[in-house]
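Journal club prep — side note

Before the paper discussion, L.F. wants everyone to see what a predicted structure for a comparable chain looks like in token form. Sequence:
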Amino acid sequence: MNLNQLAGRTANYLSRELALDTNKIDTLRFGLEIIFAALIKGIILLSLARLLGILPEVAFAMVCGAVYRLLSGGAHCSGYWRCLTLGVFTYLGAGELGIYLGRYLSINLPVFLLLAGYLLSFLCVLALVPGEVPYKKITNITERNMFKVLSVVYLSLWLGVSIIVLRYAGSSLALAGLIAVMTQTISFSPPGYKIVHQLDNLLAGLTGLFMERRYQANEADR
């Protein structure tokens, strides 16, 4: 599947039909690529979460992290399938870790963890948001401040909802959401860009090795 080509063709079609400025095609293509990627990731992720019995935790973590990511930006892998793999492991890990921690933490500790996560993310948003993403470098001060404000508003809403979830639905959901939010906060920080770049290279190397082995096996069968 070439998601880039699909998004590019759709963007070109929409730009012709809507008479859009040609300078905006790359931005539109990138936006469509995110939408298509999110749909595919959502289907795969929720299916795996259901099989593993962690669907509520993963679903809550995905909502918490995905909305925050749209507002704050952050590091991306250079290829869709690597990005998909990293995202699936991140949210499945958040769900599993949320359940594990929920079993052993006292009832009051998750509240303090949520408050600490909120404060740390709040400070990072003020200093670093919006994080750079491909085809959407934001240099206008007004726009940058708008994304900071939206991210802070979202974090405040997330904190309120998480405390309610903690009170009425259990700590595993709230902790999974916290892990997703903290992971996203790391992703738009300088260390986060380095980590994602290294993981991207690692996954690219594994993919290349797999394809090479597959090619050699095909050649041996001829």
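L.F.'s comment for the group: The chain has one domain: 55-221. Keep this in mind when we get to the figures.
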